[in-house]
Amino acid sequence: MSTRIKYDPNLNPPFVILTSMPETMERTMHDLTAEGWADGLGLYEDRWAFATVAPRDHAEWWFDVAAIMRGETADPRGWASLDPYEEDVDREVETFAWIEPPTHPADVARFRHSVDELPRSSVTSLMVLLAIVGMDVSKTWDFDERQPEMERRAQLLLSRFPVGTRFYSNIGWDGEAPNFYEQPVNATNPFSRSRWDAGLLAVNDTEVALIWTFESF
Hints:
There is one protein chain. With about 220 residues, the chain is an alpha+beta fold. Helices cover about 25% and strands about 20% of the residues. The protein has helices spanning about 25-30, 35-40, 60-70, 105-110, 125-130, 145-160, and strands at about 1-5, 15-20, 50-55, 115-120, 165-170, 195-205, 205-215. The strands form two sheets. It has a five-stranded antiparallel sheet with strand order 3-7-6-5-4, with helices on both faces. Helix 2 (about 35-40) packs antiparallel against helix 6 (about 145-160) and helix 5 crosses helix 6. It is globular and about 45 Å long.
């Protein structure tokens, strides 16, 4: 939030304090529409990507993640999703990307150790990074020109998840609040059978989201 003082000799006292919120903060305070969400998903139009939101039905939210992986859920708001395997009849076959989803407490423990929690302030740069082949902005041609539009779409996606949502990723990073434009991704904990995968989990009391991108098998 920014604050400025405006002088007006007709007032007593002769000034008024004006405040304004950054555009990104204003966006999160307004209801996101289905069209806005679909626009945000366009961030991944050039990637092999998976992006789905499901209702949270379990206290142990990893079981909701598993249901998403198995294709058993639908967006609770009826909004768009990305699923490159949505036409597959059998999502258990070896050609499907995901490794076996967690179904038992031991599985949950394994998945839980595959991610780390990151702050909300790092989510926009991570969402943008997931849209970049190679996940290294320093090696991405014309990133400076593309960055504003990519961030706009990332912030649309982020605005769906209220303050208090917790975010997790399977990639490694340095620092407590990483800016993913400033550090390349050198390692991930795999969630799939692809050569390389990386993503974001968003979890709150009502929804669970899985946003993931894959490199070639």
